[in-house]
Fold Zn(2)-C6 fungal-type domain-containing protein.
Amino acid sequence: MTGSGDERAHKRSRQNVSQACVNCRQRKKKCDGNQPCATCLSYKDECVWGGKDDWRKPLSRSETNALRGRVEELEALVQEYKTRLELVSIQRSVPSVDSSTRSPMCQKLAPPRHRDDVEDVLHDDDGTLRFFGPTSAFHRAKPCHPPSREPFNTRGENEKWSRFLPDVYITRDDHDTAVDRFFRYFSAFGQRVTPHLFYRDMEIALDLPEADIPVAAPNYSPLLHNVILCLGLAYADEGYLRAVTTRRAFHEEANRRLDSEIGNPSLATVQGLALRSSFSSTEGDYSVGWINNGLATRMCYALGLHVDTTPLVERGKLLAEQNTQRCVTYWSCYVQEEMWAIYMGRTPLMSQWHSVPYPTIDEATDSWEWTWPDSCAPPQKMYLSTCFVYTTALMRIATEITTTIYTGRYQKSDLVHDGTVKRFSDELTAWLQSLPAPLQLSGVDTDLVLPHVLLLHLGCSWIAILLFQPFSQVADRQDVDFGKYAMTRCHRAALKVHRLAQLYRAQHRLKFVPPTIAQTIYTAGTSFLLAAAQAADKEHAAAALAHCNEMLAMLREISVTWHAAAQKALILEELVTEYQNSTDAPDPAASLWTVPLARDHPEPSPTTLEHPWSASDATLDDFIQSLFSQNTMPLGSDVDLMALLQDGMGFGMGVAQPQG
């Protein structure tokens, strides 16, 4: 009895361990962890240890979150005790004037002696950057992000691409086509999103918990994904995909995602906010779009994108790719801000207070391949980054022009006589002459041109019109020479817009345009209408009006894709009707009067920026001279077309309310 009792006591006291030898695992026996173990001794086997080091079950998500919370709580307590100890040491010591002898706490609480924006960028524990200036208390606080409500991805491999999308019927092919057309026709001008980085990070993000996406895949976010689709589907061939009800479903899903992303944003969040404002403008909700674009601007500064973070790269705290994308995202928002300011007739808000360098050419982005439809030409580089660098430079000139001429701070005559207008003209000329070969136009309409390169030259003509249009109507004879010059430049630029828009239509179709081209065409249309109103010669007036009607037809074509183009077409049509009802308007079907372009002008650029006093065109001068052959505009006394158009133009892009 005693022997068996001792044996039972030994079995009860034997402890099991989390690891077992190979034989015990195969027999599914309990192992005491000794070497040799009791089981192997009883079976007279060799006790072998190996295989997995730990066969314990992994922690559940709730247990992991609980442990993480406990760790953060303990870290906060440690930091609190450290702060108390530092305060006690401050009270017991005499402060020194020399900053090098100050305690760490003094240096932390004291304002900076020298401005260093990089030091004001908070490096969060989650790996993202936030900007808080020295007057803020938040740069000393730990980030607090609410837990994600998105369940972890449980979809199969064939369905994970739609993980963050709404419950709308769309195939993978439809999805891929919409995203591809977005990058080709919408995003390329202004580099709204960098395509190869978005695709790369999308593949990563679709397998991650949503809370980990901002750090592990900063160039992708569910918000951005949905906004890309609500814009890219506008180019779809199928009517049900192109329908606004379908696209609004993705827009609403993006809005739903915004609440969770805005507390833990990334570069993709900024891009998504900017594109979200573009969707509003394309639907004609321009006031909503203006406000939403302000959210993107605010987010830029919240993430410190306006700060040069190159020193962080040198210190190994930031990857070079991330630094480049921060720069690209800031200047992309800058470009959109300026175009929004022109569109709304308001002052741009990102014109100063930044230290981030100007964008530079990125070879990886430039090498993204463009494939021509129907294989009409071999694939080629898109030169996205190169085009973006020069787009940014153009919009910086545009910002100077709009903030100087259209804010009412200066008299127009003073801007002419002090050389300000000439300086802006010279800047446009220098910009145009600096374009590298991939961004130049050959002057031959049969040569294929990338759509964003055409948009770049259209933008130059657009800015030229905005520069000279306020000076193109002469109130007295004092500035008649400059008035002729301004009219010449406006009309040349409008003719170039007409020619380039026709080239875009022939090579890419006006169905595949971004909304920007509609704004440019509208501005050119108003310029033609002004020329028709001021022409004394009926033949020239008819030609200008015919060009205006062609601009109107193009806006109607674009309205198939973007509703806002129909809105602008209606405004321009009402202006044309008002003009025709107020004067003996010429027949718009008359033969078009055009300026000879490629043959008589070897310069291939769409905007001839040389001064007409030194290089004039006889035919064009004859037309411009006709504008000065009468003392008053050929309109009724109760109509001021210039005022009428200015009410509708803002900076040339606003919404008009026709007068009686």
In short: The radius of gyration is 33 Å. The CA atoms of residues 152 and 209 lie 5 Å apart. The beta strands are 121-123, 129-131, 369-370, 380-381. Residues 61-92 form the longest helix (32 residues).
